[in-house]
Amino acid sequence: MLQTMKIELKKLDFSLLWRHSHDFYRVLDANRTRLQSYFFWANKKVTPNFSKTILFMIAYVVDTYYKNIKHKIANSAHDAPFVIMRDNSVAGMIGLDNISPISHDAEIWFWVSQENEGLCVATQSIKKIEDYSLNQLNLQSLYASVVYTNERSKSILTRNNYTIEDIKYNVPISRRNPTITNLIKFRKIVTRHNTQPEKRAHCSPL
Question: What DSSP character marks residue 19?
Fold first, then answer.
């Protein structure tokens, strides 16, 4: 008999880090090789041990809070990072960066631990953050910038009805990761008027 998974998105804040710090570090440390090509903070030189990893994440939370305060004062762009919880254990992360109240869009990013691949954890998390972006932030579209060699992310986005909008050559992976590469930009309209049929393909190991 198949057990039903409980997938939740928990906002990354001090309380969550306090309660799940060891679980978060365990998952990060087990997935460094896969993550460090895309997320600079997964590199052992940046977060070499438990203490420095948690300190880095605390600094990230502070930076997010600061951006949210600026957003409330000046209506500027802000971020919303979440931890993906599967049955109350850390399964990865997902978030929205550069949430724009002007263009009504945001950049979506995500990663899922290897032990949670192929279980539709990423797909369910994307659906949840799309609901959040629509119902809580009143956004109209989400976009993702994916390294051209990242077949897993490209496949997940395509399955979830994101389409290629642009390709940029010889650019940094992100504002936090200066590694030069080629990026494929995907986008999806998430307004209430979106009647695009949902692709129900099975979740292969990604």
Answer: H
